[in-house]
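A reminder from the course coordinator: this example appears on the midterm review sheet, so study it carefully.

Given structure:
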């Protein structure tokens, strides 16, 4: 990778390692600071006194890497919102009546029954408080005026509730996702249960929200179809709340869902459009400075209009550094600027590394910048039309290679028609962005003619039809692909070593490439062996009992009262994350054997006095009417688990009894599914 600053890569990798290792090490801030000080002294001695260049000396490189590992550990600790003594979890308790003053900071995609928001807590019981929570407001046609907007102030007396954990293995962990965003609680409100006050002063995000609302009001006089308006809001205003599940599914299956999330793609296209428009300025130094300043200003204006969402802020920061790098006109300046922007963003907000959008954006842009010149050097057509589509193919392929391992890991599917879809969609997106920005400008000035609005609507309708057609080609959509974190790392090593070998074929590079190619199937074989370990799960399903057992032969058994009780997602999640050979359904029994454990299930019949039985686990299901103290005296060494088929009042009573007797108790309502090894 000639031209790429190896020092930047070394420091970024060190910072990344520190951030990712922080949860495992769980060091105190003092310990991290002491470690940082000691390693910094060693590095300074080695570098400044012994005059060893840390980019060329192994010991100095290791010490420099370790310094930034410590910085990563420190940053994770310092940016943890729970360090603040005024955080609501330090001042209030879950499920306790609390008077709150909230300020809405973000509008989320609504659920079927409720509207969802992120809000900052400013007061709890009249005490100054910090922290973010989820606000769920029940939909009610009688109270439409209670719709909340960014910067709205609401006063309410309610309970802080815990975020619901996953009810089954491999479900999306919404609780962990929100924790990485600094959100630890939620409130459920009815429209008449809170007092809303309009803000006196608006934040930048609030002003952007007002601007978007004004644009949408201006567009209401034009007869846009529902899906066209949803696409317009997603593409140009960064708002995906109005997208239907069917429309979103079509874009996912066609492999072009990225166009509906305003991020690196949109900001990159905008940057290219502005570069094309400003090309007549020439290539003098003063012209390049003016062009760079205008492009950066345009990028941040677009970020403002889209509401400074996290994905847009990342993309705007990333391309700002890319523009500055290109201004320097140095070899690989764009890649170095990209690495620098990632380094600075993670230094400011280390939890970004856990966001899928952050990972995909940087992976796609990095591999486009790195691989596209290599591919393009292989063949460059002379015909302009052929050249244009050849470049689209190369860009799409480079981006797909960049995000492929992460996509397989997170989404477990591969859209085989992605290249065909992108050949149509990418040129269309460039035109739609330009067209849409023109519509925004003209509608704001009340100068938008009907034929322009109608034309935009028609283009969107035909784009959606094309995406739907591509999505319907099911046999090219590969689903339920197993892909572990180890395979992600090894696949990236294969792609990178192949790219290095593509530059120049040498013995060392060939050995590196072959080693990674051998390591990939070896890791897969190792994964198969590790999955031979049996597992038993007590899943959480409201008013239902579902157990899951995986045998050493990787056969998956689902135990339930009715086969219909098992959601299809339960099975798909297992197939995506485990190398399952067979799936079987079986009826619920009273006694299960797993490894060396005996599991007793007690249902509404409350039968448990079984001669000679000494269970390791007792599963309480279907609200049995029993004396728990008597049960615990009969089986004092058993762990107690209550699933979602029980009345909550029963579960609360059982929990209190177990706490008094210091017996392990697992409530799936609060803690999610339970795994028995």
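Designed residues:
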């Amino acid at each position: 990778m000639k031209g790429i600053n190896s020092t930047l890569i070394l420091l970024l990798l060190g910072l990344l390692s520190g951030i990712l290792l922080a949860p495992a090490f769980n060091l105190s801030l003092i310990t991290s600071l002491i470690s940082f000080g000691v390693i910094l002294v060693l590095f300074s001695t080695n570098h400044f006194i012994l005059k060893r260049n840390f980019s060329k000396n192994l010991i100095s490189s290791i010490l420099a890497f370790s310094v930034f590992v410590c910085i990563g550990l420190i940053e994770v600790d310092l940016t943890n919102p729970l360090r603040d003594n005024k955080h609501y979890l330090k001042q209030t308790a879950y499920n306790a009546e609390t008077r709150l003053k909230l300020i809405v900071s973000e509008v989320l995609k609504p659920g079927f029954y409720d509207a969802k928001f992120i809000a900052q807590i400013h007061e709890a019981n009249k005490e100054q408080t910090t922290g973010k929570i989820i606000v769920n407001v029940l939909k009610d046609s009688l109270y439409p005026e209670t719709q909340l907007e960014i910067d709205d102030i609401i006063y309410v007396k309610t309970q802080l509730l815990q975020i619901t954990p996953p009810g089954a293995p491999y479900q999306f962990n919404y609780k962990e996702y929100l924790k990485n965003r600094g959100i630890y609680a939620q409130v459920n409100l009815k429209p008449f249960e809170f007092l809303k006050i309009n803000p006196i002063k608006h934040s930048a995000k609030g002003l952007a929200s007002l601007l978007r609302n004004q644009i949408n009001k201006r567009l209401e006089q034009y007869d846009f179809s529902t899906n066209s308006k949803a696409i317009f809001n997603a593409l140009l205003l960064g708002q995906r709340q109005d997208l239907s599940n069917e429309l979103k599914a079509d874009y996912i299956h066609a492999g072009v869902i990225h166009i509906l999330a305003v991020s690196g793609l949109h900001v990159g296209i905008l940057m290219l459009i502005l570069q094309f428009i400003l090309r007549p300025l020439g290539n003098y130094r003063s012209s390049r400075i003016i062009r760079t300043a205008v492009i950066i200003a345009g990028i941040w204006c677009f970020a403002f209009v889209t509401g400074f969402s996290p994905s847009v802020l990342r993309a705007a920061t990333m391309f700002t550094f890319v523009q500055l790098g290109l201004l320097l006109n140095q070899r690989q300046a764009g890649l170095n600027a990209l690495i620098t922007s990632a380094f600075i963003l993670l230094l400011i907000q280390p939890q970004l590394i856990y966001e899928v959008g952050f990972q995909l954006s940087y992976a796609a842009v990095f591999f486009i910048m790195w691989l596209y010149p290599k591919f393009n050097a292989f063949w460059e057509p002379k015909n302009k039309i052929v050249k244009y589509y050849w470049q689209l193919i190369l860009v799409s392929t480079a981006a797909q290679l960049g995000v492929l391992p992460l996509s397989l890991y997170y989404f477990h599917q591969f859209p085989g028609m992605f290249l065909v879809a992108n050949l149509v969609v990418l040129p269309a997106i460039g035109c739609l962005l330009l067209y849409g920005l023109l519509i925004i400008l003209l509608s704001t000035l009340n100068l938008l003619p009907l034929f322009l609005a109608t034309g935009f609507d028609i283009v969107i309708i035909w784009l959606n039809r094309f995406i739907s057609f591509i999505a319907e080609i099911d046999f090219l959509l590969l689903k339920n692909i197993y892909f572990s974190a180890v395979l992600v790392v090894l696949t990236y090593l294969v792609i990178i070593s192949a790219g290095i070998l593509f530059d120049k074929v040498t013995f060392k590079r060939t050995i590196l490439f072959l080693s990674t190619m051998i390591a990939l199937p070896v890791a897969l074989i190792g994964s198969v062996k590790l999955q031979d370990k049996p597992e038993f799960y007590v899943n959480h399903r409201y008013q239902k009992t579902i157990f899951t057992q995986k045998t050493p032969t990787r056969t998956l058994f689902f135990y339930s009262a009715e086969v219909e009780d098992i959601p299809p997602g339960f099975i798909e999640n297992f197939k995506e994350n485990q190398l399952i050979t067979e799936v079987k359904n079986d009826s619920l029994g009273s006694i299960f054997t797993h490894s060396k454990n005996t599991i007793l299930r007690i249902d509404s019949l409350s039968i448990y006095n079984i001669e000679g039985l000494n269970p390791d686990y007792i599963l309480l299901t279907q609200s049995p009417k029993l004396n728990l103290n008597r049960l615990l005296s009969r089986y004092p060494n058993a762990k107690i688990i209550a699933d979602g088929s029980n009345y909550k009042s029963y579960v609360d009573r059982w929990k209190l009894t177990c706490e008094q007797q210091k017996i392990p108790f697992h409530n799936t309502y609060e803690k999610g599914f339970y795994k028995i090894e």
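The longest helix spans residues 384-411. The mean pLDDT is 86.
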